[in-house]
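[agent] plan:
  1. take the single chain provided in the ticket
  2. run structure prediction with default settings
  3. attach structure tokens to the ticket
  4. add a short note for the reviewer (M.T.)
[agent] executing step 1
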Amino acid sequence: MRAQRIILLLALSSGLAGCGSWFEYDKPTAEKQQEQAERDQKTRDEVARATENAKPKLQEAGRKVGEAARSAAETARATAEGVREGWNRGKAGTLDLNSANRAELASLPGLSTLDARNIIAGRPYKSAHDLVSRGVLTEEQYRKIEDSVVAR
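[agent] step 2 finished; step 3 output follows
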């Protein structure tokens, strides 16, 4: 009998603990809804105040991010141009046989001013090796410049 009372008492106390407030069940539904609406409004007000207070800092951060993005874009553009220039400087075939002037052509290894004039007179070229096939340069002269010229 004593064990039954203890079990009954435990069941009753755990049932009450799980139910929350005893008085909560006594409140009418309309009153519960009103309290929830008030809690919701309070939450909205607090979030609105926090957002209002944070707004200037967020706007400043946005401006700084925009400035950083513009700067990064300018740097990226300059970097790309530098890569292109460096690639073309060190790239085999940087001098176009169809557009290079006499001084540029004469500056190539093993070529004279006369060779440069002959190259210009034989334009246009479909390939750089046309210099040899047309008799403008010897194969030996061409080998010295083949990595420095292209025909575009």
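[agent] step 4 note for reviewer: Residues 95 and 104 are 8 Å apart (CA to CA).
[agent] ticket updated
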